[in-house]
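debug: dumping io for the single-chain case to check the tokenizer round-trip. Nothing else runs in this session.
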Amino acid sequence: MRQMIKNKQYDEERALYNLKSADVIHCIFAGEADGESVLKEARDVNLKDCNFSLRYPLWHVKKFSMEKVTMDELTRAAIWYSSDAVITDSVLGGIKAVRECSNITLKNCKIDSTEFGWKSKGITLRDSKIISEYLFMDSKDVALQNVKMKGKYSFQYMEAVEITDSELDTKDAFWHSKNVTVRNSVVKGEYLGWFSEGLTLINCKIIGTQPLCYCRNLKLINCTMEDTDLAFEYSEVEADIRSNVLSIKNPKSGTIIVDSLGEAIWDDPVMECNGEIILREDVVNMKTMGCAV
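debug: decoded output
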């Protein structure tokens, strides 16, 4: 039989430790005792309209939900080693809010958490706003949809990522990542995607200096670029860019088609570079003349 815990305040260490099959409603987790780990090892719990201001509240928790829950900046390392959760209409404000978790879905959330989502698997973030640094580092099987993100050093060492309809204002994103696909999104920042493998950008707008260098199996499909210089250095790339590019430098291999190009730089490469840069008007002319492209 499910328990209902309503209109209570808890501040002691492990106040609801190993709680099972319970609905926790309109509760406050804060107070003078300043206790940690209030819901550690809980199972099958639903939290609704609750407020947290204590450290480490949801560690080793399995099968839980959070609806209209607020975790303030004092709620450090809130959700670690936990699994099978749905978090909706909530605010996560403490550092390192999610780590080493699996099968977590977050919808319509506001997140301000440095080092969010590290070493996790099966994370879905939808219709949300997030401010973070090193976002989702070393995680896999992650999906973002309609997300506005601001921060630095995001999506590093990640694998199997799908991002759609999102705005990413970041720096050094996707470094050392594998098998990432970004669709219908804006990606703004410096040094995008260095050392990535299997990065694909489809219908995206890419903004910022020195993007997409040292990449393997890089693809850009129907993308635009803005303020991008020294792009594609030492990358294996197939790109169709529907805009101007300020400069392209030493692409290792593949074909880059651009509307226009400020400068192609072939300057003292440290490896063999045979990438081909083609202006779109030349492709059109070749097709008009019946030549193979």
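debug: round-trip ok. The helical segments are 280-288.
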